[in-house]
Amino acid sequence: MKVLVTVKEVAEADDDFAIEGTDIAESDLEYDLNEWDDYAVEAAVQLSEAGIADEVVTVTIGPERAEETIRMALAKGADRAVRVWDDAFEEGFSDVAAKVSTFEAVVEAEEPDLVLGGVQAADTGFGATGVALAERIGFEHAAVVNDLEVDADAGVAHVHRELEGGVEELTDVDLPAVLTVQTGINEPRYASLRGIRQAQRKEIDATDLGDLGLTAEDVESALTITSMYEPESESDAEIIEGDAGEVAGRLAEVLRDKGVSA
Amino acid sequence: MADVLVVAEHRRGDLRDVSYEAITAGRELADARGGDLHVAVVGGDVDAFAEEMNREGVDAIHTVGNGEEFDHNVYQTAIAALLDRTDAATVVAPNSVNGLDYAPAVAEDRGLPLVTDVIGVEYDGGLTITREMYGSKVETTVDVDGDRHVLTVRGGEWEPAGGVGDAAIESVDVELPASGARVTGFEEVAGGDVDIADADVLVSVGRGIEEEENLELVEELADALGATLSASRPIVDNGWLPKNRQVGQSGKVVTPDVYVAVGISGAVQHVAGMKGSDTIIAINTDPNAPIFDIADYGIVGDLFEVIPELVDEFA
User: Fold this and answer.
1) Can you point out the beta strands (E) in A198-257?
2) Which residue of B has its CA nearest to A129?
3) pLDDT tens, B270-306?
4) Which end of chain A is more exposed for a tag (fewer CB within 10 A), N or C?
């Protein structure tokens, strides 16, 4: 079977950052593979190593810069990558439906049996693309999966969904399916030197909307960010200042005052 | 006029608090748009749940009595049916693991804009949502096209609705499509040797500890303070501490007398599990870390310098 993994390069804001217009200043952002997607890639590679998946393909919506991140996923064992970018994505924020339209076109071309993606992206935090994609392409789905066993012969994925409060739901999901992968489901590997070398030779297919039979209209967003600001701190904390010794002394006082002692 | 449809959430026989909070959020939006507030109760003991959901401000409750536990196909089908038979323009669902298992599919199926993890709603000729980005470092306002939407609202942001309403309660039959996902059971995973929910004092460790071998440092502190060791999610994801030590939405909810957060930034999922602590002490290098918003005492500094000194104080 073929596994498609949606992979996003996410932006993380530095501790000190400035807001320019409706986004954080480019110079205060660092880019990395989305943490949740790292687990999704690992899950796919493990299926490949177990002989269940014949091919693992990653798909990313992102500019050329994202290829560094994509190479990382290839170095960890994905077989090849598709990267979609278009001027239309430069317009601003893409909503869930815009991403779904893009992935739908890639799914039609790749015809995967299983689509894996992270539960959410660390920067925008929508947590919705996988489930919406499943609806669009007529796949089954399960959100927030933290245990996965694929029975390819029976065409079923046995999953655990991580609910709130330390409870997991056990669910059987018919394939083809989209599963959103939670952190902790596995231990994502570090790319080996050999993997990094091999990744240089793997194919990253750079495409635009036209190649996928889409137009800018297909990825128009119904959502527009109109302002961004740092939330007002609701803190009324006493900030303890001084060198480490002074701070520890004051903190010890507070703790003893609260009745804490060994 | 535009009505609002709130979807109740329940698990293993109990309604979850976010259901009542969603009523408050839904009522706010319905008021702004001059509409009625509908509530959908899907699956489980729908009659008892409907009675409990009949809170002040609810105009109508629709029960769909299919199945005991959550099934996204049932929810999706039921909500679609209720959007057809009511004047509801907006669906308000909890931003929970289950909410995110059906709300995006409802939005996609109906071709409606979707906004998740909503922390504020405003309607003045058009819908404006407040939500966070970049791991709670910033808030954004978002204008949403159209007059029909699907929203999922974050828990703990609205007061739970109280009082008793005089909603009309009706039972609705829906025809279900064959389901390709079947719940076969549940597993409690937070059990084990220690119940961190019982501790009076918790020393809780997060990503700031950097390496597994550094855990020794916080173990020493916990010993010195007679405290129990707990952790935020990344520590458990890394396998450095077992799941039963995890504080937060997917772990345990704790309310100790004293909670010492060491190298924990205070993501919303973590805060949901510990904000009820009597006294919260936070040690973190980032002065903007959200943990300081809920802390009573804050130390902006290097845990590797402060903790050894603190251990010495109690030696």
Assistant:
1) 204-207, 223-229, 238-239
2) B104
3) 999 999 999 999 999 998 899 999 999 999 999 999 9
4) C
